[in-house]
Amino acid sequence: MGLKVNNISKSFKKVNALEQVTFHIKPGELFGLIGPDGAGKTTLFRILTTLLIADKGSATVAGYDVLKDYKSIRNNVGYMPGKFSLYQDLTIEENLTFFATIFGTTIEENYNLIEDIYVQIEPFKNRRAGKLSGGMKQKLALCCALIHKPKVLFLDEPTTGVDPVSRKEFWDMLKRLQTKGITMLVSTPYMDEAALCDRIALIQEGKILEIDTPKSIVKHYPKPIYNVTANNTYKVITSLNMYPFNHSVYPFGEHVHYTDKRDSFNIKELHNYLEQNGLKNITIQKTKATIEDTFMELAR
Amino acid sequence: MKRFIGFVKKEFYHIFRDKRSLFILFGMPIAQILLFGFAITNEINNVDIAILDHSKDATTKEIINKISASHYFSINQIIEKESDIEPIFKKGKVKAVLSFEKDFSKKLITQNHSNIQVITDATDPNTANTISNYVNAILQIYLKEQNKNHTSAYQIIAQTRMVYNPELKSVYMFVPGVMTMILMLVSAMMTSISITREKELGTMEILLVSPIKPFQVVIGKVFPYIFLSIINAITIILLSLFIFKMPIQGSLFLLGLESVLFIITSLALGILISTISATQQTAMMISLMGLMLPVILLSGFIFPITSMPVPMQIISNIIPAKWFIIIIKGIMLKGVGLQFIWKETLILLIMTTFFIGLSIKKYKIRLE
Amino acid sequence: MFGDFIAVNAINFEVKKGEIFGFLGANGAGKTTAIKMLIGISHPTSGNATIAGFDIYKNTEDIKKNIGYMSQKFALYDDLTVRENITFFGGIYGLSRKRIKEKSTTLIKELGLEDVSKNLVGSLPLGWKQKIAFSVALLHDPKIVFLDEPTGGVDPITRRQFWEMIYKAAHQGTTIFVTTHYMDEAEYCDRVSIMVNGKIEALNTPKKLKSQFNVESMNDVFLNLARG
């Protein structure tokens, strides 16, 4: 059970979409695939949901081989593609009934699984899907993907383009589903959502950079990171970029994250340097690496 | 089976909720039939004609008077020689020229028959046909009057000569043509658009990642359109029967069977189009360019196939609509049975099998 | 008025020259409506506004000459090359041929695109496209640039390069107006306004907003506001 991906490679024309991707997901795990657009997340989802065939490598989903047992996989997985993929001209209820029917089940049969999500949209059940807000569409899509009680649930960027409130609600729903024993693979470009997964894989340009729990993955960060601020962020960035000892300089919201090449780094020295560059109200503080720092360090 | 019924139900929701398409779907056949029907009238009134009288005797004068007395024709001019005919047609002043042969009266008396040539401008074939019928009718009335007074029966033979478009099309030709076009449009274009819409929406991905079988998707898509096409075919036949009093000579049952065959041919084509197009727009373009234009231009619906250049005639053979038009023309207008159209039917059957086979082969169970 | 609800209720704010101003709100909160009014393609039911000193009722043509616009949905033509895109947009804004040539050469050099300047834009990675699009929006030296969700989905490193470009433009005096519902983009702005149901519910620096609600991130500020 769970999911096993071994050395999967896939290319389109000249572009390598996936290169030697390997990871295993334990049954009941909530696994995150974190990476920007074009990293190969959707291609990987399509291979695992039997929509595409990999050039190389093998994979099993819930114990079934993606190539040989594709029919069994289609009976046992739920898939929510990145694009909203329901019938806009059908109502909430009609969409759900339709998907229940083609999976050979009924809404009543697995109602307990979707109940706490469905009650939120049930008041609008006669409204057409095309007229729903982003958050409601997403809840409906999740209901449709769950209606046949899948063993594994694939969610491709479910929170892209959704406002923060709906995003939070959505992750709460996933956490509750997890208690029902469903294995989940979720992809997202948001680094802050990574923390909500059991384990994450960082992916860029078709390659897995690192796989670990969100807590441990930041421990791989090799250097101390300093938060630098001053009265003019642009000047901070340009000054730090010119500083001969910099290892990395990344704006991070109102701060700039700075790492130094040397093992013995002196805050005072940098402070002076920035002052010489005409900056005022300078603060330099040690800070903890985030998943995004780790991602950038690995992707360099 | 439950899955299939669920799928078909969903398809009907799509069709009935898209009010605009629904209106086009059912409005178009009615509009087209009425348009073609009323544009082609078989009534004529004060049509300008010219007279070329080579004998100028009493009989010809009488006939000319009869013709000019009727409100159907008005004599625009009298011409003197054969070579004048062409220029006045070219100027478009007259629709027909009546040419009386030399020694008209004498021949009528000595040989009991003489000839009138009715030369018509058949660029407007329906009018041309009607004109020659009316001239004939006037001549018959005249002869009946004359023959009362004579013991031996005279005969005046009106020879009709059509210029510019010798292959005259039937007045009712538009019914088979419109029917072919509508069935093609509804069956092929609508199915191809409805399948590509699922691709564009992304719902095809979900359908593929579900236990529903590809052939169930295809049949489920096609089923509602068979139903709609049959309704359209019936509408067209009823309209032509009751509004235009078009006689259907052959068996209605055979007509129905052949129509269903053609509907299936078109649906198979529609599925084929949808397998090669990724968007609704492409599907629509291919349907219009690849199906509608050939049906209109090359099937013999508007332009007679025999007057096409040879390469076009050869190309027209691969157009299913051509064969269907021959079939329904045969059944509707000539009243022939299967023994006369089995060849065309067989060709359609082979084409259909080929298209279905190709679509099944091309149908993807995955995304690429 | 849009149907039976008011997309944008009386909103008041001022953006300073050279400021990076974040205009935040959920989908359907009225962001697009407000932007359309500001760039002069839609008129407010009531109220007034000036953009770069120009009145949005009277001087719409002047406004168009003095603003730049870039959105994630439409930025450049995929079927034109990098250079063709630059030339095209330069032409639209009435730059002389010589100036276009100079500008495109420096722009391509600054972005390090010498090798791909003859490639179709469609073949480039998303992050590159966004950087080119931003430079193109700045081509005619506008006083204000409107950016609509400029870095959604872009990889973290490219995103930072993008923000460095924005900082630079602002530093040189261009006012930057960013609309987004990605709260991490909000963190980079000098000041942000948060719109809920057509009303501006908060307007301050990200730092002050975070301390006001006593939370760690703009995301949490938003969650607090949206829940009322």
From TrEMBL, chain A:
Keywords attached to this entry: ATP-binding, Nodulation, Nucleotide-binding, Transport
Annotated ABC transporter domain residues: 3-230
InterPro entries referenced in this protein's UniProt entry, alphabetically: AAA+_ATPase (IPR003593), ABC_transporter-like_ATP-bd (IPR003439), ABC_transporter-like_CS (IPR017871), ABC_transporter_ATP-binding (IPR050763), P-loop_NTPase (IPR027417)
Domain of life: Bacteria
PROSITE patterns cross-referenced by the UniProt entry: ABC_TRANSPORTER_1, ABC_TRANSPORTER_2
CDD domains given in the database record: ABC_DR_subfamily_A (cd03230)
Molecular function via GO: ATP binding; ATP hydrolysis activity
A Pfam family that the UniProt record links to this protein: ABC_tran
Similarity-based family: Belongs to the ABC transporter superfamily.
Name listed for the protein in its UniProt record: ABC transporter ATP-binding protein
Native source species: Aureibaculum marinum
From TrEMBL, chain B:
Location of this chain's protein in the cell: Cell membrane
Domain of life: Bacteria
GO cellular component, as recorded: plasma membrane
The keyword Nucleotide-binding is assigned to this record: no
Predominant location category: membrane
Pfam families linked: ABC2_membrane_3 (PF12698)
Record has Transmembrane helix as a keyword: yes
Molecular function GO terms recorded: ABC-type transporter activity
Membership in a protein family: Belongs to the ABC-2 integral membrane protein family.
Protein name (record): ABC transporter permease
Source species: Aureibaculum marinum
